[in-house]
Design brief:
The protein is α/β, with parallel strands linked by helices. Helix content is 41%, strand content 16%. The protein has ten helices and nine strands. The termini are far apart. The structure holds S-adenosylmethionine (SAM).
Length: 266
Amino acid sequence: MMNIHIMTLFPEMVMGGLGTSIIGRAMDKGILSIEAVNIRDYAYNKHQSVDDYPYGGGAGMLMQAEPVYQCYQAIQEKINAAKREKSADIDKEEKSISEKKTRVLYMSPQGRTFSQRMAEELAEEEELIFLCGHYEGIDERVLEEIVTDYVSIGDYVLTGGELPAMVMVDAISRMVPGVLHNDVSAEFESFQGNLLEYPQYSRPEIWHEKRVPEILLSGHHANIEKWRREQSVIRTALNRPDLLDKAELTKQERELAVSCSSVRKE
Ligand code: SAM
């Protein structure tokens, strides 16, 4: 069971996006819990405003430190209370594990770029807190106090951290055991072993006069695996040659990759 808490000014956007299909079903089944917490509920003035002008001038507004901090504190207290309840009857060793600080991920174009590898690592956590900025971002002082990881989804600037949080929650959730119907489907996918996935085909056998590769109809599993592996190497060499340096390839596969790379350059 994984618990995800998303600090945002737009909870309905986040829950609307994550509540459908595979992730929504995992929530219904109790494998995943995702809650979006409205930072505005922790505003401390009567107008419920959460942003103000940046000191020193400049365009746009900045999210203030205090509502973000209060929102974080409320989530952390809730997590601690749930852990205390759970740990009433577990031994001391397990207790020290469960008391470790919850990771707080700030969605930021200035962060480390999110990757499949990071998704796998984060899927090991029991609790995760996501912090979504908006406007020109968030007062630096609260970030210094609560954030453990700064994560970007790519080198472009979005209006808010909600879409990045949704992207990350989706990628992390599908690594949580039981979320995908068939755990095998997460077994070989693009980026695993630094190779892209092979091409796939479904019925009918002929579509727009294009035939499904004969080998996939042969029923010969070893040959199919061999073909798929070669296709992965070819695709990676053609589309993402940068990944190949880190991929573990046989001598033959390396030669295949080199021959594809030279075709690409022509
Ligand atoms: N002024 C900030 C800067 O230049 O670094 C950008 C602020 S951006 C307009 C508003 C919010 O969107 C950020 O606080 C962050 O939460 C989110 N955001 C924008 N682009 C992002 C990206 N590529 N990855 C993750 N979060 C992003």
